[in-house]
Amino acid sequence: MGWWSSLKKKVKKAWTGFKAFVRAVVRYVIEFVMRVINLVLVWLPIQKKMRIQVFILRKGDGEPVLNQNGLQDLQNNLDVAIKIYKEKFDILMKPYGNPLIQTLPKPAPSYALNPKCLDGGAASDEWSEAGEYFASNLAGWNVIPLGFKFPITIFVVQPIPGAGGCSLKERTDYVTVTIAGIDYRNTLAHELGHCCSLRHHESDTNLMYENAGSGNEVTRWQKFVVRNSRHCTFW
Q1: pTM of this structure
Q2: Structural domains of the chain, ranges and CATH numbers in brackets
């Protein structure tokens, strides 16, 4: 590799990291503003809304990462998530686009198909080409908000070693999940909780238990945090 190619690669990497930094700052500012607005209203007995959009990635050969059985597992996860958020958080989950589940038209690059998750892998991805790919395919907006609904984009990827899904909490507006081979149906609900700023919980009956299982209990504080997220609005 010549010095010019090496320089261009370094500049591209720096520019990708800078854009990721700007996205994170914008999201933190919006999260703060939304929390201030919701601080008094969050406990009002009014059902809030969360918009979601599911994008299934295609492999290099053009085939979707989910077959028919996988699509049914995905629908089961969605049904469980809708039920949990309605019953536990008083939040109505609504599709952002039509249809709710879509397959992206072009094959995804390997770094997006196989995202990192554990041991800080998701954070490193966000500052690299993987984060750039997910940001460019978000539903709703990339850096500058196009509205005030702040949907969560769910990217269905290939199996993630050691995890059923991954989220960087309030730092992003997307989660990555792998449906194939996942025994538990609350995986998606768990990752959406992370995207709404929830951390892991020590109880194995809690929705946010680290090793996501079949638990769906939430605490009053968890309900407050989720309902106060920018992803959950009154409109």
Answers
A1: 0.85
A2: 3-233 (3.40.390.10)
